[in-house]
């Protein structure tokens, strides 16, 4: 195979990542011409990358939603190889585990499972690695709500961490414009002094 063949000898797995292609190829900006309304997309609220939970794209509209991308390295031949495989089922994405071939795949696969919900068949210890064990959902999926599902906070009365419904209101960040920056004023004054 890729690891043991002397002509290939890809002995190192250097990265493995999950990908969610929901909404891939949909554009949010009309970039055919320049306009002065560059920040309008941040104010309008909805777009391919910004949607309310009720308006989220359906997974079935994409032919294949979830993929796993692997980067391999052959130190002997000084070559790199990128492989991509798609999960056959979008509702329950499953791909074979590479843990038995490349041991480094262990935590990468756990991360892809935790963040995207991709199940690696044959992985010996497939459990969450970054989020809490009680966490609901997979936060890197495109249909995961930006504000999350629950908030975690410490309750001093109960003496423990509690989960409660999200109280965060979504808001649009407005870019900060610095109009009077003394660095530029000082440089302009120095230029005027040299010119006179």
What is the distance, rounded to the nearest whole angstrom, between the alpha carbons of the first and last residues?
75 Å
Low-confidence stretches: none
Specify the oligomeric state: single chain
Q: Helix tally? A: 3
Strand order of the largest sheet: 1-2-3
Q: What value does the Rg take, in angstroms?
A: 24 Å
Number of domain modules = 1
Description:
This protein is α+β, with helices and mostly antiparallel strands and 196 residues long. The chain has a single domain (12-22, 42-195), classed as Beta Polymerase, domain 2. Helix content is 16%, strand content 22%. The protein is built from 3 helices and 7 strands; from the N terminus they run E-H-E-E-E-H-E-E-E-H. The strands form 3 sheets. A 3-stranded antiparallel β-sheet has the order 1-2-3. A two-stranded parallel sheet has the order 4-5. The chain has a two-stranded antiparallel ribbon with strand order 6-7. It is extended, with a radius of gyration of 24 Å. The termini are far apart. The model has no long low-confidence stretch (mean pLDDT 82).
How is this structure best summarized?
With 196 residues, the protein is of the alpha+beta class.
Which key terms come to mind for this protein?
196 residues, alpha+beta, Beta Polymerase, domain 2, three-stranded antiparallel beta sheet, two-stranded parallel ribbon, 3 helices, 7 strands
């Amino acid at each position: 195979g890729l690891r043991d063949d002397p002509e290939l000898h890809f002995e190192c797995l250097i990265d493995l990542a999950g990908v969610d292609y929901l909404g891939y190829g949909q554009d949010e900006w009309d970039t055919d011409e320049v306009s002065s309304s560059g920040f309008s997309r941040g104010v309008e609220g909805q777009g391919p990358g910004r949607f309310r939970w009720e308006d989220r794209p359906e997974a079935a509209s994409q032919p294949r939603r979830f993929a796993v991308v692997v980067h391999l390295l052959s130190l002997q031949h000084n070559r790199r190889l990128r492989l991509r495989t798609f999960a056959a089922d979008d509702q329950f994405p499953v791909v074979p585990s590479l843990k038995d071939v490349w041991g480094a795949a262990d935590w990468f696969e756990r991360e892809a499972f935790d963040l995207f919900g991709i199940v690696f068949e044959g992985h010996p210890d497939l459990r969450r690695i970054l989020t809490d064990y009680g966490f609901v959902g997979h936060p890197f999926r495109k249909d995961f709500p930006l504000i999350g599902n629950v908030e975690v906070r410490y309750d001093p009365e109960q003496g423990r961490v509690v989960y409660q419904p999200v109280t965060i209101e979504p808001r649009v960040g407005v870019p900060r414009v610095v109009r009077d920056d003394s660095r530029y004023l000082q440089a302009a004054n120095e230029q005027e002094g040299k010119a006179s």
